[in-house]
Amino acid sequence: MATRVKKIDPRSPIKGLYAITPDEPDTTELLRKVRLALLGGASVLQYRNKMASAELRLCQARGLRELTAEFAVPLIINDDVNLAQSIDADGVHLGARDGNVADARALLGRDKLIGVSCYNRKMLAFEAVRQDADYVAFGSFFASSTKPDAVVATPDLLRQAHIEMGVPLVAIGGINARNGAQLIEAGASALAVISAVFDADDIEGAAQEFAALNFH
User: Fold this and answer.
1) What are phi and psi of 206, to 5 degrees?
2) CA 196/CA 9 separation, integer angstroms
3) Distance (Å, rounded) from C-alpha 143 to C-alpha 104?
4) Which of 76, 94, 103, 83 is nearest to 12 (CA)?
5) pLDDT digits over 152-169, tens only?
6) Farthest CA pair distance, the chain
7) Roughly how many angstroms between the first and final C-alpha of the chain, as a whole number?
8) What is the model's pLDDT at position 96?
9) Which of 43, 51, 69, 207 is deepest in the core (most CB within 10 A)?
10) Bond from prior residue into 145 cis (ω within 30 degrees of 0)
11) Are 92 and 116 contacting, i.e. CB atoms less than 8 angstroms apart?
């Protein structure tokens, strides 16, 4: 019997725990970890694997597409617009060197989510919104083991962007359930996390701690 899935609105606001996958080469293990994060309350999943071959990325993305559909959670593909299109993901997340919003929108269509990394640059975020990005991400707010040399963003940037921009704001970089609360208070709609969830001994429990935060 086919799995019955709930219909989701892929253009709905980004909010809550935004889980980003670790560089896991074992697809079975990746899906196990992600299932636990989804059970714990992750509300968005981004597939990111900088170490994988194109073949492995396609295999893993297909598996995650089925899993996120089961939980009615949007699947965002990091960096790769063509991969997002090929598996009918809910959207793509673009970095500084990953193309522009207009080109991604032309390929993916109006009903897909497009997010943009804006680091600590408010003007970059304004330009992304002007090009019709659905959300923007700022960071790194705290020291990050994933990107130890990342530029530093401040809660004041979130406060300003929250007032001036009409899209959800995602905070990223060294975030855990303890320090994340101040970023939500500053205006973050979602907290993007890798290690604080996927490196935890209890992945589901770690996700639950984030999901229990008072997101606006």
Assistant:
1) -65, -40
2) 27
3) 30
4) 76
5) 999 999 999 999 999 999
6) 51
7) 38
8) 76
9) 207
10) no
11) no
Residue 10 has pLDDT above 90, yes or no: no
**Mean of the per-residue pLDDT values of the chain:** 92
Domain architecture of the chain: domains with CATH: 16-211 (3.20.20.70)
Nearest alpha carbon to residue 182 among 202, 208, 151, 157: 157
Identity of the residue numbered 42: A
Short-list 91, 207, 113, 107, CA closest to 168 = 113
Q: What is the pTM of this model?
A: 0.93
Q: Distance between CA 92 and CA 47 in Å, rounded? A: 9
| Burial state string for 152-168 with b = 16 or more CB within 10 A and e = fewer than 16 | ebebebbeebbeebebb
Token pair in block for residue 16: 């809550």
